[in-house]
Each structure stands twice: as structure tokens, then as C-alpha cells.
Amino acid sequence: MMVQLLVGEPMSLSRAIAGLLVAISAAACTASPEEAPQDEPSSTSPSPTASPDPGEAVLDAYEGLWGVIVNASRTTDPDFSELDNYAEGQAAELAQHGLGAEAEEGVVARGAPTHDPEVTSLEETSAEIEDCMDSSEWLREDAETGELIEESPSEPLLRKVEATAGFDGLVWRISEMRIYEQGSC
């Protein structure tokens, strides 16, 4: 399975998520795996249909997807049970496959990325989202020791993210997601 991470540069799905999580390894964090931060997104995230405004509902789905990704990145036994609420197709596969590969390697993440998404196109059943994600506070670490895999960055790690959402008549879900190289936004 291939995913376009950079224009014209195909990359395997596990490398795509690994690349994303590499971008995560930013600021210093010395918490051991059992000292998970208390600011984790709630497992009772708002429904992607919680907002009557379609633009807000699209952003709710996008943010919900990232909440599932962040929660799943914190363990070597990721739970994707909520993923269907926010994603389908390539976006769901990207999250599951990439995070599963990291978990198999004994890599987890602490903290969370920050996002600045905006809906750039909105039609009756489809929408496009652009985001500039900063993953400098989302750190990769060894699941057993809690030690960082890479050094903490001294500057923000900014990556452009483009996503496509679809509306099935009931809810908006992210169907495609492209994550670009560091420094792309």
C-alpha cells in the first residue's frame, strides 16, 4: 500500500506514519510510559455531527480523527474502535497501519501535536481541509524505557496536512489525508 506524502514522492504507509511520528519527536519529555499526560483527548469526543454548521462539523471530524490518532499513539496496543466515527478509506488505513507499525517496534508517543485547520472547500457532500500541524510537542519514545527516540527539537516542527472529508447524509468523515515533509508550512 502506498501513500503520497510529498508531491511525486511515494512512501509506504508505515514510513508515512513513522515520518509523522519522527516529526513528533520534538520537545523534551522525560515522563515514563506509566506517567501519561493528563491532557489526553477524551475518549468521548464530540460526534462529527455535533455542529449544525457544516464547516464546523467537518473540522469536528478532522479534530476527532487526530484525537483517535494521538490516543492510539500512546500505547503499543492501539485501540481504533472510535476511528470509524471520524475516518474511512485511505485516512483510516493510514492511521491504523502506520500506528500499528510503530507499536510493533515498541515506539509510543507522548504529548500531542497542535493544529491550525481550515476548511478550504465545502460542497454538499465533500470538503477539503488544510492544516499546518506543529508536532514539536508530540514526542516518540521507547515504550519500555520512556527514553526519547530522537533529540527534542529547538524549533517548531511544522508540516502541511491536506485532508478530504465526505458527508454520507448523516456524518462527515475524513476519507483521505496527506502529510507533507517537515517545513512545508
TrEMBL record:
Region (Disordered), start-end ranges:
32-57
From start to end residue, where is composition biased (Low complexity)? Answer: 41-54
* The name this protein goes by in its record: Uncharacterized protein
